[in-house]
Amino acid sequence: MNDRQQDSLDRLIANLPRDIVPPGNLWPRVAARLSIRPRHAPPMALAAAIALAAAGLASLFTWAVLQGPSVPRVIQTVAATTSFDEPRDPKYLLARDSVEKTFRDRLALLEPATRAKIETSLAVIQKAHEDIRKALAADPQSPVLEQLLQSTWHDEFDLYDRVVRATQPTMTRI
Amino acid sequence: MDSSTEPTDTIAAAAAGDVAAFECLYRQFSPRVYGLCLRLTGQREAAEDCTQESFVAAWRALSRFERRSRFSTWLHRIAVHCVLSRRKGLRFEYEVAEPALGLPDRADPGSGTPPLDVERAIAALPEGARHVLVLVGIYGYSHAEAAGALGIAEGTCKAQLHRARQLLTSTLGLEQP
């Protein structure tokens, strides 16, 4: 291909319109599918559940000692039944921080070696979560990554639950 | 509305769950997404489906959009993924019977080559060559970006573009006697 041919072809291609209006209005079909999965409800419901759990855990852990691991179960139930859409609501994030703080308070009751193992496990889960989240940002359509992200999110709360169970007898003795 | 403009406030509102804001994004960006899907698939129905899928996927992922790239770039990547995800089993036949899909009558008044001839020639390219030509030649992807989106090596991308250009030159009669 010589320069003249190349210029001719480049000009033809460059003049093609990039935008082509869809022949029909596709928005109603798109909107109908959005309404199947409202974005406000799950994060808000989740935030409410986490806030409730945080309040229960943060007030006095004696409640959790008496009731067993029901608070983390609330979190797990919500996590298991809510379609996953990682929340960024400030209320949720605040509540989550509070839950994590309470979890760490309980963690402090464990033997140093046990605590170190748990912290290592948690770090692994959180690192995996972050890595997957970054991968999803680059490839947001991937159902596999979505599934993995959800899995790590559940794993984190599962770890909280196990720690709560493990620390219950210790705290009862205290 | 110019789809090259990034409506940051609207994007933020849609990311927070505002459907009306997301509809604004749809109105602004759907022609570019549909054009991309139509040229990649060569089928109107498939392009409509992919456009729809792209926006639904974008809605679901928007809260994770971190603005490390332009919104339009991110959205187009979703669209390419949708097209590639459903290409297996699809027959890529250009719909010559439906030429007036918003295209102008002529691409360049001085060129003497109606754009539909160019579109048909592009649609007739082998799939790999067509995908690269559409992304790099028409939509301005770099070879690295196109290779990443298509899941091929950058060298393969360059080779496919060269092949596409040669085939188009021949098909459109741009060869010198």
Describe the fold and architecture:
- The complex is a heterodimer of chains A (174) and B (177).
- The N and C termini of chain A lie far apart (85 Å).
- The model of chain A is unreliable at 36-84 (pLDDT under 50).
- Chain A has one domain.
- The relative contact order of chain A is 0.11.
- By secondary structure, chain A is mainly alpha-helical.
- In chain A, helix 3 runs antiparallel to helix 5 (70-81), helix 4 (61-67) crosses helix 8 and helix 6 packs across helix 8.
- Helices cover 78% and strands 0% of the residues of chain A.
- Chain B has 177 residues and is an all-alpha fold.
- Chain B has two domains: 1-93, RNA polymerase sigma factor, region 2, helix turn helix motif (Rna Polymerase Sigma Factor, Chain: A); 106-177, Winged helix-like DNA-binding domain superfamily/Winged helix DNA-binding domain (Arc Repressor Mutant, subunit A, Orthogonal Bundle).
- Helix content of chain B is 63%, strand content 0%.
- In chain B, helix 3 crosses helix 4.
- Classes of the chains: A mainly alpha (174), B mainly alpha (177).
- At the A-B interface, helix 1, helix 2 and helix 7 of A face helix 2, helix 3, helix 4, helix 5 and helix 6 of B.
Layout of helices and strands:
The complex is a heterodimer of chains A (174) and B (177).
Chain A: H1 3-14, H2 27-36, H3 41-59, H4 61-67, H5 70-81, H6 90-107, H7 112-138, H8 143-173
Helix pairs in contact in A: 3-5, 3-6, 4-8, 5-8, 6-8, 7-8
Chain B: H1 8-15, H2 19-41, H3 44-61, H4 71-86, H5 115-123, H6 127-138, H7 143-150, H8 154-171
Helix pairs in contact in B: 1-2, 2-3, 2-4, 3-4, 6-7, 6-8, 7-8
